[in-house]
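We emphasize that the prediction below concerns an isolated chain of 348 residues; any contacts that depend on oligomerization or on bound cofactors are therefore not represented. The input was used exactly as deposited, without trimming of termini.
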Amino acid sequence: MPMALTCFILTPNLKERVKTMIDLPLRLRRLRRTENLRRLIRETELQTNDFIYPLFVKEGLDKRQAISSMPGQFQLCLGDLKQEVKEIESLGIPAVIVFGIPQNKDERGSESFHPHGIVQQAIREIKKHSQTLLVISDICFCEYTDHGHCGMLQGKEVDNDGTLELLGKQAVAHAEAGADILAPSGMMDGMVQAIRTALDKSNFSHLPILSYAVKYASCFYGPFRDAAEGTPQFGDRKGYQMDPANGQEALREAMLDMREGADMLMVKPAMNYLDIIYRVKQQNPSIPLCAYQVSGEYSMIKNAASHGLLDEEQAMFESLTAIKRAGSDFIITYFAKEVCKGILQAHP
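Result of the prediction step, given as a token string:
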């Protein structure tokens, strides 16, 4: 059956009208004149359910301890978690990610998979006070090893394949404690597959994996290493974390982790890697994507604001909006409490 063709004939009168429309000056400021106009056409809107709040829980503490390099952040004791959970839930934050600092460290990071390790205790304590708050467990070894690297060593190098078995043990131990999501962050090749296999064999096939698929060897982790007490005792992590100069490699890492069974992906850090967030999301539009606004990004804003160089609240909202606009579906940030308070005040 022949297709119907629709033809538009430009009469002289219509030609003149089209020309007039083309010649009219653009006045985009018309839509910026008032706050309600700006709100009406706003493309990116932050919501409380966009955020995950990090918690540092230290074994042996009897009260919270301020982290000097991260204003407003604390190492917590187990007794602090009840009040933390209450506040976090009241702000509409759906999830926390837990980092543990043990009293005893060894070359294998064995406290990370001990049934009564500090993270396992923290997970149980959180679950005691909330049935709805999601608990994400960071799966790595830098906080637990006496050398500060993200896996067991072979000489001065991290033993990739030897570490995979330990990652599986750690993930299962945290799952048994009640973790809702496992988040491997060590950038070991094959880590997602090793953890997925270990979880499935232990009847935790229902638990998702949020992979730190694209994690760069960044200087912006400095304050975190103070908070988690996981600074390498020698060398650096450039042998397993990504080169900040590489973009295409990020797409390969994301693709590999998806093939291994990752349910969600992460890009870390966020601020200097907005282009990577965008590219990973464009390549994988259907998979949830997390971005981690890391400690250095947080502390820079805090310190600049304390010296009167910028407005802290505006900088917080602007930076987080940029991260979401780039393509992230949710964001790990130390600003989570503050930004959600601002959102709730604006939309009570």
